[in-house]
Specification:
With 258 residues, the chain is of the alpha/beta class. Helix content is 40%, strand content 19%. It has helices spanning 2-10, 34-45, 57-66, 82-90, 107-115, 128-147, 183-193, 202-210, 217-230, and strands spanning 13-14, 26-30, 50-54, 71-74, 97-101, 120-123, 156-159, 162-165, 170-172, 178-179, 200-201, 241-244, 248-251, 256-257. Strand 2 (26-30), helix 2 and strand 3 form a beta-alpha-beta unit. The longest helix has 20 residues, at 128-147.
């Protein structure tokens, strides 16, 4: 009862005995059942993870908006709300998601979850060691994608008349002129083209940019401004990269893989 009261007052529970070092991957655990949340969190915290807890949809979205975790686990006790939570999360972020499914989950339910954006679906019964291994695998895969953008399926993208070739690091404007990108601008644009029309948090963009060069939260806005200018933002027309208030930024264009 005490934990439930504290969570309700704080919105998110954890942190107390958990080191905040950036070396530990952060995992947001979303489940309506308090005991389940604490059990998974305790196990993760003892295995070099930093667990953050959320007991409802609003708390989950608030946490992701403020500081995007490395991965989200949606627990089985959310029941039929799981797909609703997944839709809400995918409208905000491209963070990896593992959905924990009950024994009644049919194959079609798992397929729907994967099509809605879940990266993995784990069906009961399962052990915490297996869940931890799946979390680590997804976090590792995401880090490798950010380190090696050429490994992504899409290597050349087209949007709003522009062409962005990751293999040659070349950006071409609608009239065919080449536009030079810095390492940081290349990393930012790479993050945007794989998630068009989805708001990306500053934390997500910071993680993508830090792979290529040092950047802090204060300078991310400046780098976005410079990228906007290179994408033809003159202040007279809506920018391709739009500010999403209290969240971050969104590439406001449809993207095709060339």
């Amino acid at each position: 009862m005490l934990w439930a009261i504290v969570e309700q007052l704080m919105g998110v529970m954890d942190f107390g005995s958990v080191s905040l070092t950036k070396k530990k991957p952060s995992v947001l655990i979303v489940d309506y059942d308090l005991v389940t949340r604490r059990t998974i969190a305790d196990y993760f915290n003892h295995h070099d993870m930093r667990a953050v807890l959320a007991g409802d949809n609003q708390t989950m979205l608030r946490v992701v908006s403020c500081r995007e975790p490395d991965l989200v686990v949606i627990g089985s006790h959310v029941g039929t709300d799981a797909l609703h939570l997944l839709r809400g999360l995918r409208s905000l972020s491209v963070v990896p998601v593992i959905l924990l499914a009950g024994q009644r989950y049919e194959e079609t339910d798992r397929i729907v979850a994967l099509e809605l954006g879940a990266d993995d679906v784990v069906t009961r019964p399962f052990g915490l060691p297996e869940l931890l291994a799946r979390v680590r695998a997804n976090v590792r895969r995401r880090a490798m994608d950010m380190l090696h953008p050429m490994r992504r399926e899409g290597q050349c993208y087209r949007f709003a008349g522009w062409q962005f070739d990751q293999r040659t690091r070349q950006l071409t404007n609608p009239v065919g002129h080449s536009v030079t990108l810095t390492k940081g601008e290349f990393a930012l644009l790479s993050a945007f083209v794989v998630a068009p029309r989805r708001p990306l948090t500053r934390e997500h963009l910071l993680k993508a940019t830090r792979i290529h060069e040092d950047v802090d939260d204060r300078s991310i806005n400046v780098r976005i401004l410079r990228l906007r200018r290179k994408l033809g933002d003159d202040g007279r027309h809506p920018p391709l990269i739009r500010t999403e208030r209290a969240i971050g930024y969104v590439l406001d264009a449809d993207v095709q893989i060339a």
